[in-house]
Amino acid sequence: MTTAHTPEPILQVHQLTKTFAGFQALNGVDFSVNEGEVVVVIGPSGSGKSTLVRCVHQLETIDGGSVYLDGELLGYEHHRSGVRPLTPRAVAAQRRRIGMVFQQFNLFPHWTILENVTRPHRMSHGVGAAEAEQRARLLLKQVGLEHKADAHPRELSGGQQQRVAIARALAPAPRIMLFDEPTSALDPELVDEVLAVLRDVARSGVTMVVVTHEMEFARQMGDRVVFMDAGRVVEQGTAEQIFNHPKSDRLKAFLSRFRAQGARPEEAAPAAPDATAPVPTEPTAADRMQAAPARPGRRSA
């Protein structure tokens, strides 16, 4: 009898911890993502959602635990009986395999929309001009902005700028895409256009981790939903399990406030803000070389 082989997850996080000035942002987080999966991370403000994805992308130095991408330890390498930090060049190479979209768009104002997608791709990945432009125009069409290729960011709405940021992050065809509350900085009337793009990206088979306050998006698009609170993963499961059959009292309370008030849970129950700050969406090559390594330790709508 042949046993079916279960592939290893693309992303594996083991016992991740992170502290900011005495505040325990992450406290022993275990987390994994399979290829082609859309994992949506929800929870109150200050629960560690943004810190989690920033640590995966090595934008924050972790205090303990480990992160693996395709079985490769991120930020460190095994050496003799322990581990040692990777060189900045090696860290930059790892980060190029992960795409990330932040709360703020951080487009370069003096570049056209087309240049905002092509130039980071060329500088960070060594892609030729013609190939980068072809890829950029295809992605701008996918996010509905091919007609804005020659415009500048100041000529676009916030929702349109975030759609450009999504195209920019997708340009190198990363192994996994991380979205850190991509609609939180938008006016309410602009949120739907960005969520529509995220749905399209999810249906295309891209592996995604989405930190969001948008509960309907989580319910409709999450292959798996992860609920975090106080730096821990409290509960995870399918959208059906999380939203219709929650097990923990904490998740039940979180969802009940959302349902009772018809608002985002974070608006119904304010909490301490995340101890993180937005950074430029696409760092320059020099920025990447200075990145500090981390310490190891779909469905349709």
Automatic annotation (TrEMBL):
Keywords, ordered alphabetically: ATP-binding, Nucleotide-binding, Transport
Compositional bias segments (type: Low complexity): 268-286
ABC transporter domain segment(s): 11-255
UniProt xrefs under SMART domains: AAA (SM00382)
Renumbered residue ranges of the record's region Disordered: 259-301
Family designation: Belongs to the ABC transporter superfamily.
Classification via PANTHER family: AMINO ACID IMPORT ATP-BINDING PROTEIN (PTHR43166), PHOSPHONATES IMPORT ATP-BINDING PROTEIN PHNC (PTHR43166:SF4)
Protein name: Amino acid ABC transporter ATP-binding protein
Organism: Arthrobacter ginkgonis
